[in-house]
């Protein structure tokens, strides 16, 4: 992916770029079900699945917190929708083509309403620590998104670099602390996606998003991380994983020791 992600004709080469865009993978009817189920959940109980409970009350993200691991909550409609989508063959067939047989390790839902901060550039496997194989993200656009409402930016080719220790991010732009700059000579590409498009990307790919500067457009996304069955260990926050055929829990070893930052590795879900 050397130019941009907006061209319908782009033949995105996962090996070269570390990213592949599947346009229109989920039909709007499915996307609307996901959107409405998560909106009902956040409006009825915003804390049931919230990850960040220390947000200031005047931070719009405290009204629309990111939901983490919803697929684990079989008692909630949002949990059932997340679980169903995680194992959806339209997605898992692409996962298998890109990384071979895999387990589901993580689900997340971002609401990202107007004015919400984004997430500074980072590499996912810094958090998951899947080893010896890295993870793969499937980022599902629930709304049409572009730079204006804080769509994702990716750095094609950056997946070839090691996972590195992040520096401090700008807290006025990012709700997460770590920042990984693009490797020298590489630049970030702003994605533009329509609801139902799915972006697959490698666990070392540098990516992130800027604030939603639109006045009235949410930028919702449902995100999964998959880990090859060949991986032997992962950070404990992602255990148990999910068997994509049976839905059963899967346990592998816990990644121990320090990450690329040694003891200052930020444990936990990203
Ligand atoms: O959607 C975003 O703004 C960031 C999501 C992300 O970086 C991720 O899923 O790893």
Give the helix/strand layout:
Elements: H1 14-17, E1 19-22, H2 28-44, H3 60-63, E2 67-68, H4 77-86, H5 89-99, E3 102-110, H6 125-128, E4 136-141, E5 152-154, E6 167-168, E7 178-179, E8 189-190, E9 198-202, E10 207-209, E11 221-228, E12 233-234, E13 241-243, E14 249-250, E15 253-254
Parallel strand pairs: 12-15
Antiparallel strand pairs: 1-9, 2-3, 3-11, 3-13, 4-9, 4-11, 5-8, 5-10, 6-7, 13-14
Helix pairs in contact: 2-4
This protein binds 2-oxoglutaric acid.
- The sequence of SSEs as H and E is HEHHEHHEHEEEEEEEEEEEE
Mean of residue pLDDT? 92
Estimated structural class: alpha+beta
The small molecules bound here are: 2-oxoglutaric acid
CATH architecture designation: Sandwich
Identify low-pLDDT runs: 1-11
Largest sheet: 8 strands, antiparallel
The helical percent reads 10-25%
The CATH topology turns out to be: Jelly Rolls
Query: Helix count, per DSSP?
Result: 6
Query: How would the global form be characterised?
Result: globular
Radius of gyration: 17 Å
Strand % is: 15-25%
- CATH top level label: Mainly Beta
Head-to-tail CA distance between termini: 26 Å
CATH superfamily: q2cbj1_9rhob like domain
Domains counted in the coordinates: how many?
A: 1
Number of strands: 15
Structural commentary:
The chain has 270 residues and is α+β, with helices and mostly antiparallel strands. The protein has a single domain, classed as q2cbj1_9rhob like domain (Jelly Rolls, Sandwich), CATH 2.60.120. The chain has helices at residues 14-17, 28-44, 60-63, 77-86, 89-99, 125-128; strands at residues 19-22, 67-68, 102-110, 136-141, 152-154, 167-168, 178-179, 189-190, 198-202, 207-209, 221-228, 233-234, 241-243, 249-250, 253-254. The strands form 4 sheets. Strands 1, 2, 3, 4, 9, 11, 13 and 14 form an 8-stranded antiparallel beta sheet that branches. Helix 2 runs antiparallel to helix 4. The chain is globular. The two termini are 26 Å apart. The protein binds 2-oxoglutaric acid. 2-oxoglutaric acid is lined by residues 110, 118-119, 124, 137, 139, 152, 207-209, 221, 223.
């Amino acid at each position: 992916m050397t130019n941009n992600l907006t061209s319908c004709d782009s033949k995105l080469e996962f090996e070269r770029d570390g990213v592949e865009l599947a346009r229109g993978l989920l039909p709007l009817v499915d996307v609307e079900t996901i959107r409405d189920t998560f909106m009902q959940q956040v409006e009825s109980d915003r804390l049931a699945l919230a990850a960040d409970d220390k947000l200031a009350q005047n931070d719009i993200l405290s009204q629309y917190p990111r939901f983490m691991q919803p697929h684990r909550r079989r008692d909630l409609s949002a949990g059932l929708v997340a679980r169903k989508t995680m194992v959806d063959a339209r997605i898992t067939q692409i996962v298998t083509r890109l990384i071979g047989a895999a387990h589901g390790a993580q689900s997340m839902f971002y609401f990202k309403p107007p004015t919400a901060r984004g997430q500074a550039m980072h590499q996912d496997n810094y958090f998951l620590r899947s080893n010896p194989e890295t993870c793969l993200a499937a980022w599902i656009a629930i709304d049409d998104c572009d730079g204006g409402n804080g769509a994702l930016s990716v750095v094609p080719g950056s997946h070839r670099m090691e996972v590195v220790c992040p520096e401090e991010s700008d807290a006025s732009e990012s709700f997460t602390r770590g920042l990984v700059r693009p490797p020298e000579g590489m630049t970030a590409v702003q994605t533009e996606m329509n609801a139902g498009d799915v972006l697959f990307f490698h666990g070392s790919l540098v990516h992130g998003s800027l604030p939603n500067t639109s006045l009235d457009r949410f930028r919702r996304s449902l995100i999964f991380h998959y880990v090859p069955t060949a991986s032997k260990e992962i950070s404990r926050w992602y255990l148990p994983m999910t068997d994509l055929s049976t839905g059963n829990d899967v346990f592998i070893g816990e990644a121990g020791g320090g990450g690329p930052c040694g003891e200052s590795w930020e444990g936990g879900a990203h």
